[in-house]
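Researcher: Please generate the 3D structure of the following complex. Treat every line as part of one assembly.
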Amino acid sequence: MSVVKIPPVLRSYTGGEKEVPAEGSSVGQVLTALAERHPDTRGQLFGEDGALNRFVNVYLNDEDVRVLDGLDTPVTERDTVVILPAMAGG
Amino acid sequence: MPSAAEYMRSVKEKVREVDPKDARDAAGLNGASANGAGSGVPARLIDVREQQEFEESHIPGATHVPRGYLESRIEGAAPDRSEHLILYCASGNRSALAARTLREELGYENVESLTGGITLWKDRGYDVEVPRALTAEQRSRYSRHLLLPEVGIEGQLKLLDAKVLLLGAGGLGSPTALYLAAAGVGTLGIVDDDEVDVSNLQRQVIHTTDRVGEPKVDSAETSIHAINPEVEVVKYNARLDASNIMEIIEGYDIIVDGVDNFPTRYLLNDATVRLQIPVVSASILGFDGQLAIFKPYDGPCYRCLYPSPPPAELAPSCGANGVLGVLPGTMGLLQATEVIKLIVGSGDPLVGRLLLYDALAASFTELKVRRDPECPICSRDPESISEEEMGVFPDYEAFCAAAG
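Model: Done. Output below.
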């Protein structure tokens, strides 16, 4: 299983978990598995059309999935999916 | 025992001396290309005099290796022992002694000593460089920088000439301002319309308990001058917005972004891309920090990374959610480090990379950030970015309404 890193602002939707293991062979499947396990994350990650929200950055290891194949990017068990929030605190 | 004069004569018999005219040709300083041994590689001039003499004037392009440090520093200055070296001093004695040492003790094969030293060189009317020097007080204050080859006098002079604008004298701006002032950054602009509140003091270390109620820009200026009275502080007791941003930021070399809201971060991005000013950006929340440099057209901009801001419920501020007091210290000093690297031109700047810091886990993560070829701002010619569209993003009005 791959691991999804949950940013602080989303941890209230995952019961405080920082890393959630999730099954799937693509980034989209892994995030869907996360949303099934923690349904409150769904609305934060995906729009009504099922696409990733524009304000959500998703990385496979250290690379933005937008420059890979987006939600279709293949994921192996050793990969980490990072959900990156924009922050503005100063 | 020989007399001093006899001794010098015997030393000079053992080294090759070179006339200023030939030295000038070999070093490629005659206006034409070097003709040193037909190799095309110019000879390296090495000034073996004391610091003060070198600072008064030296031959252009000369490397300074004082004779007292000759053995320990020559390898750093001239690692290749077959390189053609021409040593000089004031009149040709110290350079002859140094040339003998290099040849006989250290195995340098192609060493010469300039006949008559820089005195004869000047008498012939050849060019010398009179460098800008640091004052004695500055040499002492910045001595630990001067010892670093990556900074040195040149780097310190760049720092003294630099103009850096700090957005916010808050959590991030406080440590950044203190250390940049200590480092000798010549001009520090500070934009903040807030006053010091007692709740700031848990992290905003530039302010003090007895200055609660003072404008933050005044309090920051007091602390900066207490550390380094030489820094010129330019205060903007204002909130950065579309009406004043171009006027405030123009003319600064680097901007340090520590602002606490998304609309200003987008506005800043667009204005700095237009003016092509690099931004060293950090943000913090809770126990987490992010850091990146947005250097227009060399790397991605803020919009390449974050095309649109999160909804208000996912964009809490430190005021609402809390922040570990030392976290902005850590992130602010990483910003200050990147600012200094950009100014002196050393190291690998954090361009095209995003550094994440998780204080609870004590871990850093680095992510790649790429330029977006379809970026609404930095994919375009800077002149074409109009003031009307600066800072505007999708759903801007709804965002601002929700954010209150």
